[in-house]
Amino acid sequence: GNSVTQMEGPVTLSEEAFLTINCTYTATGYPSLFWYVQYPGEGLQLLLKATKADDKGSNKGFEATYRKETTSFHLEKGSVQVSDSAVYFCALSGPRNSNDYKLSFGAGTTVTVRA
Amino acid sequence: GAVVSQHPSRVICKSGTSVKIECRSLDFQATTMFWYRQFPKQSLMLMATSNEGSKATYEQGVEKDKFLINHASLTLSTLTVTSAHPEDSSFYICSAKGTPQETQYFGPGTRLLVL
User: Fold this and answer.
1) C-beta atoms surrounding A97 within 10 Å
2) What is the pLDDT of residue A56?
């Protein structure tokens, strides 16, 4: 079945540091890949997504590239801010246009950015 | 973005009682809603998928008579935990999806504590 493995946290960084959260997946075919973010006290929000190999999702300075050859979708941001402190979840669903929208989530990585 | 609410945000109940959790899409019609469960420091696990007007589809290992799901309208789904026991204590999160969009919008979650 589908599964997602992401880097364990917690991760603590200083402002303007570079952030990477590793995510690898196991799935058949070409799943859609997502990064969700959960800010303190709020629900999960879609941060970015990619639906086919070599696609790059980007939003709010975050980027992730769909790497089929390494089955990875690592999240990166070049210069983090205190407001980026949150829990980040990597997830996958069935291929685009497959009507398989069920999400499989990684365990989540807690990121704390200090001023 | 679309907003999904959950009520209550937190509930404490006695063992043997039933608890109902509501999930509402506030500004869009949710043809599909999903219910997840999250244990501390663990990933979200999909419990069931419900489509408006039809019976929910439960994931393997989830007792459908224990976790009753009703999706009677395009803006409301309910999860009822029947005869709750301490092992049912968890964080329950819903998400909603409209048509034809594939993005799921998440509620803030409901923390259930069964004494």
Assistant:
1) 10
2) 97
